[in-house]
Amino acid sequence: MSTKRQVHLAAHFPGVNNTTVWSDDRAESQIAFSSFEHFAKNAERGFFHFLFLAEGLRLREQKGRIHDLDVVGRPNTLAILAALAGVTEHIGLVGTLQTTFNEPLELAKQLATLDHLTDGRAGGNVVTSSDAFHGANFRRGGFLDHADRYTRAAEFIELSRELWDSWEPDAVVADPASGTYVDRSRIRDVDHHGPQFDVTGTFPVPRSPQGHPVIVQAGDSDEGRDLAAAHAEVIFSLHTEFDDARAFSDDVTARLARHGRSRDELLILPGATFTIGDTAEEAQERSRAIRRAQVSPATAIAFLEQVWNRDLSGHDVDGPLPDVEPDVDADAITRGRVRHLRDPRSTVAAWRARAASDHLSTRDLVIEVSTRGGFVGTPEHLAAEIDRFVQAGATDGFVVVPHTNPHGLDEFVDRVVPLLQERGVYRDSHDEGTTLRQNLGLPDRVRDRQAATA
Q1: Is 185 within any annotated ligand binding site?
Q2: Can you give the pTM of this predicted structure?
């Protein structure tokens, strides 16, 4: 058996941001079930560990209007995953779920149900929000202070696990005479009182195959990293450059130790794009074409407006960057998008210097700073790079993000996966286990909890 570290791969369904190239001849609906079905079955054919779906609670807006090249429609994640359970057999099904505007019992029940439907293949990606824009869809506005987002998320996860643990594994007993019945003595009432939640009652769903569906986390802030170190089992990270990825891994590893956890209890899977060519030159040319298609003139203007916080609809994207400064005092004209820039003015100054030195137009500059080339090269190069990251401990694998829907994963499965298998770093069967937790090599939380309380 190989002693090499094994690569873990997940597949991110495209269609919820401007990185999806809708002008591609192969592009199909991001709503039709046939798109989800093809994508999921193809990922399963490639022995991917899980399918990953994003979700949003409201469509993003720019100056009060929906930017249709960014995202149009976000169907319910759990409904799609439940449907995919019927057309897949092995692949894990993970959906993004909000801890801010949902309630623990509701989502714990839904995830436990999905875990039953899939025979143990369910997982949830924990995300937070505190803004009134999303809250308005729930008639709750900005009810949660920004500083409390992760306080609520941590208690949300803790309470969910308390609910899942309230049923002992043998609480449902089969009786030959009368059929299946519930042994009430093996179910504990939940009596939880914390800063965010007061819950008293009985969880309605029997213990699912995994006991605890797998918890994924996608925040990158200091608070988000601490939440992941304390509670998550997979991190969907932003860090795809080698040195950056290794620094992130070192940081999270140190945080794990502070929470009494080890590195083998958490997988780090950055989201990574890819472009394949028969030669390095062909791959680079394809990558340039894809990145240009991702940033149309309208998208370039929308991106500028998010940073400048000004109406720049009359700006020439083939000319230089705007000569006005960002308006940092006005209300944001972009709604529903996470802002990663802490200092727009210094960012704009750096962009102007880069555009001048590299002779970049506005659109060219936006392409450079808003899109990622990801892994670009021949299939052999991609397999070697993925292997390098994993063997060095910079990552445990990647969440592969195609640029077309639903066929964007096809070439990766056909041309890169076999090379990873030849290297002895990627599985070639679904025989590792029956549950997502087992296939990811994660600890059995139920067994560990029972041992700790014995």
Answers
A1: no
A2: 0.92
Instruction: Write out the two tokens for 191.
Output: 């009596």
Residue 150 assigned to a binding site:
yes
**14, 36 in Cβ contact below 8 A?**
no
Closest CA to 107 of 164, 151, 25: 164
Domains and CATH numbers, the chain: 8-279+373-453 (3.20.20.30), 296-370 (no CATH)
- pLDDT higher than threshold 80 for residue 186: yes
Phi, psi (5° rounding) for residue 16? -120, 20
Neighbours of 369 (CB within 10 A): 16
| Tens-place pLDDT, residues 58-79 | 777 778 787 766 666 678 999 9
* 91 close to 8: Cβ distance less than 8 angstroms: no
Looking at the predicted structure, is the pLDDT value of residue 453 above 60? no
Amino acid letter, residue 104: P
Does 96 appear as a known binding residue? yes
Q: Is 221 annotated as contributing to ligand binding?
A: yes
What are the backbone dihedrals phi and psi of residue 12, each rounded to the nearest 5 degrees, phi first?
Answer: -95, 120
Q: Contact at 8 Å (CB) between 217 and 236?
A: yes
pLDDT at residue 176 greater than cutoff 80: no
H, E, C per residue of the chain = CCCCCCCEEEEECCCCCCCCCCCCCCCCCCCCHHHHHHHHHHHHHCCCCEEEECCCCCCCEECCEECCCCCCCCCCHHHHHHHHHCCCCCCEEEEEEECCCCCHHHHHHHHHHHHHHCCCCEEEEEECCCCHHHHHHHCCCCCCCHHHHHHHHHHHHHHHHHHHHCECCCCEEEECCCEEEECHHHECCEEEECCCCEEEECCCCCCCCCCCCEEEECCCCHHHHHHHHHHCCEEEECCCCHHHHHHHHHHHHHHHHHCCCCHHHCEEEEEECEEECCCHHHHHHHHHHHHHHHCCHHHHHHHHHHHHCCCCCCCCCCCCCCCCCCCCCCCCCEECCCCCCCCHHHHHHHHHHHHHHHCCCHHHHHHHHHCCCCEEECHHHHHHHHHHHHHCCCCCEEEECCCCCCCCCHHHHHHCHHHHHHCCCCCCCCCCCCCHHHHCCCCCHHHHHHHHHC
